[in-house]
Amino acid sequence: MTASPPFLGFSDRLSDSRIPCAVIYGAGHGSTYPGKDSSGHALAADAIRAASQDDVALVEHWDFDLGGPLFDGKPVSCIDAGDIPTSLHDNTGNRARIAAKIREVLAFPAVPILLGGDCSVTIPFLAGFADRGPVWILQIDAHIDWRDEVNGERHGYSSPMRRASEMPHVAGIVQVGLRSVGSARLTDIEAARHYGSRFVTAREVHSQGVEAALQHIPEGARVVVTLDCDGLDPGIMPGVAGRTPGGLTYTQVIDLIAGLGRRARIAGFDLVELYPPADIDGLSALTAARLLVNAIGTIVRQG
User: Fold this and answer.
1) pLDDT tens digits, one per residue of 187-232
2) Owning domain of residue 147
3) What distances in angstroms separate CA 62 from CA 65, 72, 118, 161, one per listed residue?
4) What's residue 197's pLDDT?
5) Looking at the domain assignment, is residue 2 inside a domain?
6) CATH of the domain at 73
7) Pair 298, 254: CB distance under 8 Å
8) Is residue 1 part of a domain?
9) pTM of the model
């Protein structure tokens, strides 16, 4: 299968030798559970890239989400550097390669943007910030992802926030969009609360607005955003493995991203858990591409 053209037609380097403000990478596989197959999630990065192609010619046009063109009238400053090589069930190797690539991007310095893959890729993504702390985490997700292990695997898609809570460079975690039922047991909820994680349910965002989540982020903090696609309502994001009604709207998520850019500083961004085999008419990939545009636009406007 031929790989998709790069996101929004971005080059893999800036022609004038400038340092990019943001670097996009795909990572198809993280730490897959025994007997499971993450190949469906591995299609996500190219599905998002493909969904962006209709807007390649519009990068300098006015974007009403951002209040101006994507790069705010300045030269393009984001690159798509392709995919980090990963393979099914090479869990240790995948984690090492993802974390190493994030360290490379941060050394520019630039903001790394990672397209999963299931959310097991979030663990090495966050690990790559070990020498760049402290960072806060804003997780947008239906689930808290606080399992200690599943079938002996401690780095799978049910565990990223538990592993993050053990990272010394992580200063705090805010989890927004929570709803319905998932893999969490009472002991996982208690462990997250004992750590000090701030839970913000989808219902609270619907009733109180995005400030219900943003108020927990210290002003001026450096924040890594991890956006699990099932945090959004399946009416606009059906292409996920576990559809759950009542999720965040597109507008709520872009308001979270924009509000975070005003209150704090986005230091990294990942978008995970898009599952193209379950998508409907490419709607989820299109929504994911637009969310990525909003993240880039916010990062650009951070200066």
Assistant:
1) 999 999 999 999 999 999 999 999 999 999 999 999 999 999 999 9
2) 7-300
3) 9, 9, 33, 37
4) 98
5) no
6) 3.40.800.10
7) no
8) no
9) 0.97
How many structural domains compose the chain? 1
- Distance in angstroms (rounded) separating the CA atoms of residues 181 and 183: 7
Q: Give me the phi and psi of 78, to 5 degrees please.
A: -125, 140
pLDDT > 90? residue 267: yes
Listed in sequence order, the DSSP H helices in the chain are: 44-51, 91-106, 122-127, 160-165, 186-195, 202-208, 211-214, 250-263, 283-300
Distance from the first to the final alpha carbon of the chain:
38
Tokens representing 173 are 């975690």
* Count of residues in the chain: 303
The DSSP call for residue 68 is: B
Q: In angstroms, rounded to a whole number, what is the distance separating the alpha carbons of residues 129 and 286? A: 29
Of 285, 232, 273, 278, the C-alpha closest to 256 is 232
Question: How many alpha carbons lie under 13 Å from residue 291 in its C-beta half-sphere?
Answer: 33
Greatest Cα-to-Cα distance within the chain, rounded to the nearest angstrom: 54
How high is the pLDDT of residue 1? 45
The answer to the question of residue 177 being in a domain is yes
- Examine residue 43 and state whether it is found in any structural domain, yes or no: yes
